[in-house]
Predict the 3D structure of the following.
Amino acid sequence: MELILALSIGVLGGSGVWLLMRPRTFQLIIGLSLLSYAVNLFIFSMGRFPVGRPPILEPGTSGDPAAFADPLPQSLVLTAIVIGFATTALFLVVMLAARGLTGGDHVDGRGPGR
């Protein structure tokens, strides 16, 4: 499981960085999204992967904290997903406005023929 997760993080991160280097804004947005997914998976993997274990202790009981899931990475990733979605929506609006103003979608404002 950890090997598959590590490979997924590497592929998502590498693809995201490669797309960030592209000159078009849509590829830039997709690259940022892939990179944020890689970071979210990395943060999520910092918590353990206990299957069927509760994230909190039952009231009135004491137990081994190592046997429970860590809820902090899950809450951080959930917050990052919401913020990432809002940021992507904002980027899309800015991209559409810039495309309407400049007539192209290159990051530097110059097309291949200019």
